[in-house]
Amino acid sequence: MATKKMGILLSTPPENNNQATVIGLANEAVRQGIETYLYLIDDGVYYLGRPETDALVKAGTRLFVCAHGASQRGIPLNTLQNATFGGLVSLSNLIKGCDRFISFN
User: Fold this and answer.
1) Mean pLDDT, to the nearest integer, of 66-92?
2) Tens digit of pLDDT for each residue in 49-64?
3) What is the pTM for the complete model shown?
4) Cβ-count burial 10-38 (b if 16+ within 10 Å, e if not)
5) Are 7 and 39 in contact (CB under 8 A)?
6) Separation of alpha carbons 77 and 81, rounded Å
């Protein structure tokens, strides 16, 4: 039986209440053995390098980041080792490849 896959899109900044929901959801999915993907876009790129994001990656969440969004916000693309930078094609493939995809805007 194939492993279930879940994707989460986060476009809001860390000050938004979506943070707790996304972290809880991703942690629970990983705990249940679901391959979990987090795609940060727009102001969601501000989660890069934050302890809560690093903890998600350490627990098993795969992190993807919009390269354009990071660049527009002055975040260098070559400074983070645990993130895959991409664009809308990456996001589209992620959506297509997941059993469930949830967006927090």
Assistant:
1) 87
2) 899 999 999 999 999 9
3) 0.93
4) bbbeeebebbeebbebbbebbeeebbbbb
5) yes
6) 10
Structural domains in the chain, CATH included, are: 5-104 (3.40.1260.10)
Q: Which residues contact 62 (CB under 8 A, 6 or more apart)?
A: 35, 36, 37, 38, 84
Instruction: Report the candidate in 21, 16, 13 with the shortest Cα–Cα distance to residue 40.
Output: 13
Secondary structure (3-state) at 50: coil
Kindly give, in sequence order, each residue whose CB lies less than 8 Å from that of residue 6, ignoring residues fewer than 6 positions away: 29, 34, 35, 36, 37, 98, 99, 100, 101, 102
**Under 8 Å CB-to-CB from 38, ≥6 apart: which residues?**
7, 8, 10, 22, 26, 53, 56, 61, 62, 63, 64
8 Å CB contact between 59 and 44: no
Query: Is residue 28 helix, strand or coil?
Result: helix
Cβ atoms of 4 and 10 within 8 Å: the answer is: no
